[in-house]
Amino acid sequence: MVGTHDVAPVTPADYRRLAERRLPRFLFDYIDGGANDELTMAANLADFASMKLRQRVMRDVSGVDTSTVLAGRKVAMPVALAPVGMAGMFSRRGEVTGVRAADQAGIPFTLSTLGVCTMQELQAASPSPFWFQLYMMRDRAVVQRLLGRARDAGCDTLLFTVDLAVTGLRHRDVRNGMIGRPTLKVRLSKLRQLLARPGWIRDVGVLGKPHTIGNLSEVVPDPTDLNAYKAWIDEQFDPSVTWKDIEWLRRIWDGKLLIKGVLEAGDARGAVDVGADGVVVSNHGGRQLDGVASSIAKLPGVVAAVGDRVEVLLDGGVRSGVDVLKAVALGARGVLIGRPWVWAVAGAGQQGLIDLLETVHNELRTAMALAGVSRIADVGPELIDA
Length: 386
Hints:
Elements: H1 12-22, H2 25-32, H3 39-50, E1 68-70, E2 73-75, E3 79-81, H4 94-105, E4 110-111, H5 119-125, E5 131-134, H6 140-152, E6 157-161, H7 171-175, H8 184-195, H9 198-206, H10 226-236, H11 243-252, E7 256-262, H12 265-273, E8 278-281, H13 295-306, E9 311-315, H14 321-329, E10 334-337, H15 339-371
Parallel strand pairs: 3-10, 4-5, 5-6, 6-7, 7-8, 8-9, 9-10
Antiparallel strand pairs: 1-2
């Protein structure tokens, strides 16, 4: 998908530029944007950039090993692909593309509740168990059906997202007609955006069908009718959920349970108290409450509160293997990568994501060597130059 006159993409920023050229604007902004003034989204990146590592020399780093264990599974590096809703609208059968690339990289892939592809598609495409991300819905029978399907498809790890009591205000989506009243002006604007991206129309619009929320296709309206889709989400996503509901979930789910969307130490302790196997420090990529702190700023407090009892992962702002090293140095067992993997498959397909993950792996390996450590277990806070 990269043109003959393009420089070969390497970084997430490279793939973001390719995705912007390939996707209709309303879809690009949906994945690229954050809530309100996008302050938290910016902080996720800025706070990683402001952190300094220590360079340590004259140590034997001839055999750097980036492998570790996440949720009971040995992985090639402390990275997993984060759940992204409607990934199959950004690339043909995008979730299948993602899991195949993750398999090649030796890391886990997480399927969103709101993914286009079904669990059965992922099971057929991948020899490895995938992770599944769940939102609590008012209809608990739907939740139970999803968990049953996940077990049947070989899923062994559940990420339960707790930071979406209501949907954040994402102004780009309103401006671009992703949500809101479908006026004639909005319809014409979206039509122009689509006609300007004939490659997307063929690859995703035609060859990427069916366009459904695969695992909820019997209850969710056509996701291309975005207002009906959002209305269903607003109706079904349950803002009354408390830790008692997680206790219920823990009783019916016997696999690993990670609670995603925790920023405060008290909430992390609450997750552990109801039986979680881990927590994911996350502000939803800056797409929910704008103005909260970055994930990396909140990581040390959560690690101090529960890191000796459960796995702590980080989501938000990770753009390189150097960022991975910084997060692990502050106590994360591993990180989740969201936007970059979608940019890669949108801009350059499966090979683009394979190449991106290889770059992240090489960056991590090189950063570890230059910081004087050979194993992930040896990475600690002494690597951060405070």
